[in-house]
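writing this on my phone so excuse typos. first protein, seq and then structure
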Amino acid sequence: KETRELESLPKQIEGLEARRREHHERMAEPGYHRQGTERLSAAKTELDSIERELAAAHQRWEELELVASRN
């Protein structure tokens, strides 16, 4: 089970990094900050969520790598 999880984490992390990159690209567009506070707040909330998921995935990957190295 842990082996499959470890194998799946790189794709999960790549997907999260792609989503984060898309957000950053949108934020760099001219006029992005003229969207209104509700839309900006929602985008910030989503970006924060992606960052938390990404940190958790990296942490889990490290944990599983450590377990795998001990076996």
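second protein below, same order as before
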Amino acid sequence: FHDNNVFWEELSYKLAMRDLIDQEGESQVEKMDPFDRGTKVIQLEEWYIEEFGRNGIQNLKASSKPVKKPH
């Protein structure tokens, strides 16, 4: 149970950081005041936590397709 919670929290954090970098740009995120950056990440992270709590992975999509290995 603990490992499952850690997984969802870590996934939510990583997606939130990715989204913040997509929105603001990596250099802007690096220059941000740590408190402001943390506040923005937490807001994004909370959205993911709520989404995963409601729907699990039902709405989770990858933007690329798996590569088929030659036989």
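The chain has three helices and no strands. thats all i got for now
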